[in-house]
Amino acid sequence: MTDTSVATATETSAAGGIVLTDTAASKVRTLIEQEGRDDLALRVAVQPGGCSGLRYQLFFDERSLDGDVVKDFGGFGVVVDRMSAPYLEGAVIDFTDTIEKQGFTIDNPNASGSCACGDSFH
């Protein structure tokens, strides 16, 4: 039996160690098109907060900061700042759209645990 999440993740590119699945890349591309701007990139960051100490932030950004790692994912960039990069090495970002849940998910091998609500990690 094959783990489809791993198979999907290996078909995509990595940005600063981040893997973006085809489903997530398609959703990001659609959202950027809806914004009507071609200067936006998806910024992925780790910030202090949440019950477990650290929280992910995903947002569109037109800025370029010193030390950013930027990779192209077929027409849009994924940006990771130098402080967040070690926390995100090997993380897989996917997009889920089901009756129970809709949104981006992050499977991070560097997270040793998370809070009960799944909003933060350590």
UniProtKB/TrEMBL annotation:
One of its GO terms (biological process) is iron-sulfur cluster assembly. One of its GO terms (molecular function) is 4 iron, 4 sulfur cluster binding. Pfam families: Fe-S_biosyn. Coiled coil: none annotated. Gene3D superfamilies: HesB-like domain. Residues 18-119 form the Core domain. PANTHER family: IRON-SULFUR CLUSTER ASSEMBLY 2 HOMOLOG, MITOCHONDRIAL. This is Iron-sulfur cluster assembly accessory protein. The lineage of its organism: Bacteria, Bacillati, Actinomycetota, Actinomycetes, Motilibacterales.
